[in-house]
Design brief:
Elements lengths: L15 H10 L10 H5 L10 E3 L2 H10 L2 E2 L5 E13 L2 E13 L2 E2 L8 E14 L7 E14 L5 E14 L11
Antiparallel strand pairs: 1-3, 2-5, 3-4, 4-6, 6-7, 7-8
């Protein structure tokens, strides 16, 4: 269902700090942001099993649209072609991706200063072979951790693991109504 997000907490509810961390662990790229094909495709034909470095400059821009500021030099990201497949009847590629970054900055309203930041993102993305078709299936496993210093000198340690399944499909063309 479009626009619906469901979270389930194990062993009780989420603390306000965990809720804030979850807000940044589960974000989707903004309109006009680089897309998964720009971040992770090899740019040339490859065989299943082939690996290549991801486009870290593009990936850094994608993360920035999600309020995660990581320098391209601090990103370690690569991709692997799992198989050639089909998506909605069209030729497609299933790509496994892995991203790791440390010491990034999280910005946004209400986000306190953070320290000791670390994030890993592991994804399985199915992209159509035709880049003009805006569709994909994605399973993204993210793990994010950081420390929030408190005014009293104590710190709050945050560690959030999230798995998100996403299906992106173009909207059908609007039909003119007949009266």
């Amino acid at each position: 269902v479009a626009g619906v997000t469901i979270f389930r907490a194990q062993q009780g509810g989420l603390t306000p700090e965990a809720n804030l961390a979850l807000r940044y662990a589960v974000r989707y790229p903004a309109q006009g942001a680089p897309t998964a094909d720009q971040d992770f495709t090899p740019g040339k034909p490859v065989e299943p099993g082939a690996t290549w470095p991801a486009h870290v400059e593009s990936l850094a821009r994608t993360l920035a649209t999600q309020d995660i500021i990581a320098l391209p030099g601090a990103l370690d990201a690569h991709a692997r072609l799992v198989e050639n497949t089909r998506l909605d009847g069209r030729p497609a590629s299933k790509i496994a991706t892995a991203v790791e970054t440390k010491n990034f900055t999280i910005r946004g309203d209400g986000m306190p200063e953070t320290r000791d930041t670390a994030m890993t993102l592991d994804s399985l993305i199915t992209l159509p072979a035709d880049p003009t078709v805006r569709a994909s299936d994605q399973r993204v496993k993210s793990e994010i951790s950081f420390t929030i210093p408190r005014p009293d000198g104590a710190t709050i340690e945050q560690h959030v693991k999230v798995t998100v399944d996403v299906k992106i499909r173009p909207l059908p063309a609007a039909r003119d109504s007949v009266k």
